[in-house]
Amino acid sequence: xxxxxxxxxxxxxxxxxxxxxxxxxxxxxxxxxxxxxxxxxxxxxxxxxxxxxxxxxxxxxxxxxxxxxxxxxxxxxxxxxxxxxxxxxxxxxxxxxxxxxxxxxxxxxxxxxxxxxxxxxxxxxxxxxxxxxxxxxxxxxxxxxxxxxxxxxxxxxxxxxxxxxxxxxxxxxxxxxxxxxxxxxxxxxxxxxxxxxxxxxxxxxxxxxxxxxxxxxxx
Length: 219
What we know:
It contains ten helices and six strands. By secondary structure, it is α/β, with parallel strands linked by helices.
């Protein structure tokens, strides 16, 4: 079996321990804009979609004005330079180092906007890992396959040569919709059971298991 040439990582809940900050910021933003704060588990279930899509799903009667207002409030809080809310999982850097040393090409596909991802990469000093990145706003929201298509097109690869790694069923369905393989990591927004219900090669406990899994699976 031929190993992938490109590994596409989701960001929130996969590389970075950001699930709770996202939930807290979303609830705060709704309240500040005069709307009832959504239930935490409802927010959790939607993480992985683009910010406007999450807000539309959470509003009982969404209007574009309300969506835009909440999105601006959320972004102002989340992108505040004094808000150091971007912490990588401890096993993320060693995993990325191993994969890069083994010759895998690495990329990111995230529901964050471009400003959010650029801020996250800057805070975590991970810019040297990524050959390409794809964000919400530049592509349709997951589980659309367009982010995978865009990244593969940019790097001259077929989607079948890519592997997606993510913490939500949205990531795994995005991969399947693109014809790519996928591995789930039970470290973020969705439970192991939710990940097992989506297309996957494996569901791992964390990124520390990924290099070993790839070595075994593609031996």
